[in-house]
Design goal:
Organism: Spizaetus tyrannus
Helix content: 55-70%
Number of helices: 12
Distance between the termini: 40 Å
Keywords: Cell membrane, Ion channel, Ion transport, Membrane, Metal-binding, Potassium, Potassium channel, Potassium transport, Transmembrane, Transmembrane helix, Transport, Voltage-gated channel
CATH architecture of one domain: Orthogonal Bundle
Membrane topology: Multi-pass membrane protein
Number of strands: 0
Strand content: under 5%
CATH class of one domain: Mainly Alpha
Low-confidence stretches: 1-5, 173-180, 299-342, 365-383
Radius of gyration: 29 Å
Largest sheet: none
Order of helices and strands: HHHHHHHHHHHH
GO molecular function, one term: outward rectifier potassium channel activity
CATH topology of one domain: Helix Hairpins
Family: Belongs to the two pore domain potassium channel (TC 1.A.1.8) family.
């Protein structure tokens, strides 16, 4: 009977992350339930006491009072308040609404009430959210490029001070001759630290503005900044909703800039943190690799010594940067364990790698500086990642346990 193929690294990482997320959700639910449940029960008790006292003092039956309160709740859902508020569907209010839609913040304080508005929102949000996610990815690419340029300049300055670079060194074709800068990439941890400091500074400045203008306390302002910038958008606190403010135009502009920069910065920070989480998952998988089956190491070692030519070993001897997430697949492993000297898939991958190296050299010659090309032996267009994860993998170092 044919044995099932062992769980590969990608699936193992996915299942491990799913288990960790489930545990994280359970732990969060436990903590929030313990913190908020007593307060909710006490508030419900106070409200029931107030309701009965009001009914007794003003001689109003409880069913009539509850019917009135239901009408008031419906009015609140429609955007009607006791105190005067800004119009919800004038042009500034509608612009604020569409901004929260395409950025996926979704405060919920304004919602379309007509059927035509709801249908238009579905079509509008489909393209708007997709375009905004693309904008976030392009912002991420450019902020990483800017940080890489600054950090590389600092790295060159440090090398000059230590005497590893000549004083008259300049960027350009001469860079290829300097071994200390070939293939240099900024550390993901340094980028995470810089983005974290910038996000904290931005949130503190925005919180100071909201505290002064909206009248919130500073903790509520920080809470609002995180909920908004992370696109959670509960809607319990919403800025720029009063009928009038002092210097209203300036405040609305500042509010827009803070929200835009905050969402972009937190989005970038989340993606950097996701790379770190992926590294932790790789480390955990490596620690647990084949611990339950020590025979696998022995059989793999015997087969490795028996094979005279191994494309993977040849690639490692030439120090080719290969993505650690997909060095082998199940078909390749099965062929090697069957005793074949070399698999056709490995041979094809080796030829592909050689072609990629040639293309890399041509690119370096045409552009005058080396480009770091991450070559993957798996012939899969998505193996290097897509979207923000691919951007981070291509532009930052220490994104795999092989580095």
């Amino acid at each position: 009977r044919r044995r099932l193929a062992p769980l590969n690294e990608d699936n193992g990482r996915f299942l491990l992350l799913a288990a960790l997320i489930a545990a994280y959700l359970s732990a969060g639910a436990t903590v929030f339930s313990a913190l908020e449940s007593p307060s909710e029960a006490a508030a419900q008790l106070r409200w029931n006491r107030t309701l009965h006292n009001f009914s007794r003092i003003f001689n109003i039956s409880l069913p009539e009072l509850r019917a009135f309160l239901r009408s008031y709740e419906a009015a609140m859902a429609a955007g009607i308040r006791v105190d005067a508020l800004r119009p919800r569907w004038d042009f500034p209010g509608a612009f604020y609404f569409v901004g929260t839609v395409v950025s996926t913040i979704g405060f919920g304080m304004t919602t379309p009430a007509t059927v035509a508005g709801k249908v238009f929102l579905i079509v509008y949000g489909l393209f708007g959210c997709a375009g905004t996610i693309l904008f976030f990815n392009l912002f991420l690419e450019r902020i990483i490029s800017l940080l890489a340029f600054i950090m590389k300049a600092c790295h060159e300055r440090q090398l000059r001070r230590s005497g590893l670079l000549p004083p008259n060194f300049r960027r350009g074709p001469a860079m290829s001759g300097v071994g200390s800068l070939v293939g240099w990439k900024p550390s993901v941890y340094h980028v995470m630290l810089i983005l974290g400091i910038f996000a904290i500074t931005l949130s503190c400045c925005a919180s100071a503005m909201y505290t002064a203008v909206e009248g919130w306390n500073y903790v509520d302002s920080l809470y609002y900044c995180f909920v908004t910038f992370s696109t959670i958008g509960f809607g319990d606190l919403v800025s720029s909703q009063n009928a009038a403010y002092q210097n209203q135009g300036l405040y609305r502009f500042g509010n827009f800039i803070f929200i835009l920069m905050g969402v972009c910065c937190i989005y970038s920070l989340f993606n950097v943190i996701s790379i770190v989480i992926k590294q932790v998952l790789n480390w955990v998988l490596k620690k647990f690799e084949c611990r339950c089956c020590p025979k696998c190491h022995k059989s793999s070692a015997r087969l490795g010594r028996r094979n005279a030519i191994t494309p993977g070993a040849r690639l490692r001897r030439h120090n080719i940067s290969i993505d650690a997430d997909g060095q082998y697949d199940s078909d390749t492993e099965g062929r090697r364990l069957s005793g074949e000297m070399i698999s056709m898939r490995d041979l094809t991958a080796s030829n592909k790698v050689s072609l990629a190296i040639l293309q890399k050299q041509l690119s370096e010659t045409a552009n005058g500086y080396p480009r770091n090309v991450c070559i993957n032996t798996r012939q899969n267009g998505f193996s290097a990642g897509v979207g923000a994860l691919a951007i981070m993998n291509n532009r930052l170092a220490e994104t795999s346990d092989s580095r």
